[in-house]
Amino acid sequence: GEYGHSPPVYPSPKITGTSEWETALNKAEHFVSSLTLDEKAWLVTGVPGPCIGNIGPVLRLNFTGLCLQDGPNAVRPSDYVSVFPSGITIASSWDRDLIYDRFHDLGLEYKGKGAQVALGPVGGALGRTPYGGRNWEGFSPDPYLTGVAMESGVRGLQDAGVQATIKHWLLYEQETQRSPTLYPNGTLEFSTYSSNADDRTIHELYMWPFANAIRAQASAAMCSYNRVNGSYACQNSKLLNGLLKEELGFQGYVMTDWSGLHSGVASAQAGTDMDQPGHIEPMTTLLNQTRLSSYFGGNITLAVRNGTLPESRLDDMIKRIMTPYYALRQDQDFPATDPAMAYYNTQFSSSNYSMDSLVFGEKSRDVRQDHGGRIRQHAAESTVMLKNTNGTLPLKAPTSIAIFGSDAAPNTQGLFIRGPSEIGTLAIGGGSGNGRFTYLVSPLEAIKARAVQDNTLVQFWLNNTVIKDANVESLWGATAPEACLVFLKSRASERLDRESLAVDQHGDTVVESVASKCSNTIVVTHSGGMTIMPWADHPNVTAILAAHYPGQESGHSIVDILYGAKSLSGKLPYTVPLNASSVNTAPTTNITTSGVDDWQSWYSEGLEIDYRYYHTHKIPVQYEFGFGLSYTNFSMASLRVKPTHPEARILSQPEALATRPGGNPALWDVLFEAEVTLQNTGSTSGATVAQLYISFPDEVSAPSLQLRGFEKTYLSPGESYTATFPLMRRDLSYWNVTQQTWLIPEGDFILRVGFSSLDLHDSVVLRPVE
Ligand code: NOJ
């Protein structure tokens, strides 16, 4: 049945406000009390307009409406905006402040364009499977790292005055079958996939980062396309009423993913507050017209009139929508929506909506300010160096270099790269996380410009199909180049899971071809996540850099790293296994039997995703989670841990305090503090990331290692530093399914510190509860 095996949780919890949002809630309550029933239905339902999502105005109350725009990497659809490094890229920086700044800059661009609501950051897909088409929009398959990034992202956006929408809630880990399959007559052939996970896995992996984001007062949450344990995420009362609003104390509003609503009253009762893209007309009988009609809209008015939906629930929906708006002072001097954005919005191109009401006098508003410089810096600081033999990098005024690969090249088919372009560098993924470049610096252009300083001879081959079978020696003539740079790309996109974990366009053969002749082959990958690197141990492959999707300054960022202008300090936010057959999680595909409920995606690996799996089962990997080299060396010693309240006895169970955003505040209490001493033992300044991992006592079954703290620090040669890791109650707890609470188990924890999940330098035993 529709609700499957997900238990019912009703009624939908009402907004209670928070101390920070108290005045805003009062304003929202006042606003609601002035509305007619039709206006109320109007406010919870999207309408056509210039933005990807629009809430219409109530002009008699001086409310000019809401403009909702994608996404996590750029204001989209729009022009004269910056394209920022993607989520997985900046996660590789392991730098809270960098992530905050990057989202703050993005937030300023939203505000500049007059978009109140940003459709990001992304905490789901978490990255359960490396084949996932959208992992690059999010941060890392590690929930702790993603949680920290979500928190920084929400604060960054909201400090800039725009609403953050945390998405996608929840267990949206694959693109395959994310939308229902309909027969030509409009009836349902297959429903969307159902992600089926156990309660503990849901809490410890998938909800975890959202808890951080909600604690940071996220304004909105987007419910996902998929079903969870049998019931659509946007009408799953356990997910929305139970976990999100009750357990995590979420005070904002739940909007649907676009056309992700499959019922009206049932979804409103289950906790959905806004339908996007909506349309105010009531749902018609023809399913292929869903774009022009809504299960909300006029149906909400009818449902309140006939008593199926309590008006108090509708009022709560609007209070949740309006409170963040007032809290962020969007009622005061918020820029008008840039009307030129409508030009790029294809969402309603087939509708009869007229844009006459928009003033088209204004040209595209340029909101980029000085963000390009920081994008360059952020992407450089997020680059991960995986190999560097004999100090091949940084380059030292080479007399000759050769550049290989389509990914080095400028894009020759325009800057708005919708589909895979054969020759051209890849700097962002596809779909709603895309952005419209105003410029994109390719590696080739940037290297050529930099090479002038050293009078370096630069030659290049850009066609992978040619390089893979060529004798590359024929390119360079008498003298071999001092370095051969190979640029590889791996495309990832919304609506499309990856078919392979290899790089695109015969990239592996390209590396083999170059490395067979060039004894100093340096490989740079631009990818949306993990790619298998079968050439990693090739003796002629002397250096490997994973640059992910760096955004518009791509070429400049990599030049800064190749030539050593920026300190290298990125660390992998996932594992690179030895080969694809090591991977234990794949999207659910190829369902062959017939029946609407056939698409079942069983999360049978439970907690064991990415390194939690490899480490627990001692599976050798190519490059482990948390790994990344630098241009200097560091030492780490003397891990110690002390209670922050020495006199207090710690109980296994958290005190039952009134829920606040983020859940029971007792979970966020810092119980212990661990410290470790670092030193830069090399001869250049540089940054590193001290990482803290815990192992649970044997009494509890858990992955053998879990990240529970990290700190990035910049040190000059010889300089020492004490890194501090606050350990909160949540960090030491597991979700106990029978008692339905977080518990600290009795017994010995082991805390370990190091520079990666395998490069561990010290450990201590901790017994928090007796
Ligand atoms: C669908 C995507 O899943 C979502 O992330 C996006 O915000 C909406 N489309 C609007 O473009």
Automatic annotation (TrEMBL):
Its EC number is 3.2.1.21. The keyword Phosphoprotein does not apply. It is found in: Secreted. Residues 688-757 form the Fibronectin type III-like domain. GO terms for biological process: cellulose catabolic process. It holds the Pfam family Glyco_hydro_3. One of its GO terms (molecular function) is beta-glucosidase activity. SMART domains: Fn3_like. Its main location: secreted. GO terms for cellular component: extracellular region. Pathway: Glycan metabolism; cellulose degradation. It comes from the Eukaryota. Keywords: Carbohydrate metabolism, Cellulose degradation, Glycoprotein, Glycosidase, Hydrolase, Polysaccharide degradation, Secreted, Signal. It catalyses: Hydrolysis of terminal, non-reducing beta-D-glucosyl residues with release of beta-D-glucose. Beta-glucosidases are one of a number of cellulolytic enzymes involved in the degradation of cellulosic biomass. Catalyzes the last step releasing glucose from the inhibitory cellobiose. PANTHER family: BETA-GLUCOSIDASE (PTHR42715), BETA-GLUCOSIDASE G-RELATED (PTHR42715:SF12). Belongs to the glycosyl hydrolase 3 family. This is Probable beta-glucosidase G. It comes from Penicillium rubens (strain ATCC 28089 / DSM 1075 / NRRL 1951 / Wisconsin 54-1255) (Penicillium chrysogenum).
